[in-house]
Design goal:
two-stranded antiparallel ribbon; 8-stranded antiparallel β-sheet; Umud Fragment, subunit A; mainly beta; 1 helix; 39% strand; globular
């Protein structure tokens, strides 16, 4: 898996926060649009709670499609959060990076893909696991 790391800072000349409309868009039947904005949305404000501990990374691969994380998506990862049961995490396993769901049962730690085509990774004595951070959100371009 290849991960490209991005920091949550705005580059010079990049647009600031964009409008966030107060109404919701149904994913079913169309509804008339309302003509007002609730405020402005800056993705850093929306996804980043701990700026010094957060980074963005691009995902490569298909193991997390069931969690809504697709090949080419950018994920926001917070290193300051304590990983909990069921969290999606960025982990280093014996020196290799991966994005998986964290599962603990007693003393057994398993990293699970959210795609049935991929087997869970169960840790054995002598293997090294480092959790880099907890995934807070996903950004995806459709075109």
């Amino acid at each position: 898996m290849t991960l490209s790391v991005f920091t949550p800072t705005r580059r010079p000349g990049a647009p600031g926060p964009l409008p966030l409309f107060a109404w919701k868009v149904p994913a079913g039947f169309p509804s008339p649009a309302e003509d007002y904005a609730q405020g402005r949305l800056d993705l850093n404000d929306y996804l980043v709670e701990h700026e010094a501990a957060t980074f963005y990374v691009r995902v490569e691969g298909h193991s997390m499609t069931g969690a809504g994380i697709l090949d080419g998506d950018i994920i926001a990862v917070d290193r300051s959060l304590e990983p909990r049961q069921g969290d999606v995490v960025v982990a280093v396993i014996d020196g290799a990076l991966t994005v998986k769901e964290l599962n603990r049962q007693g003393d057994t730690i398993t990293l699970r893909a959210r795609n049935p085509e991929f087997k869970p990774i169960e840790f054995k004595l002598g293997q090294e696991l480092v959790i880099w951070g907890v995934v807070k959100g996903v950004v995806r371009k459709l075109r």
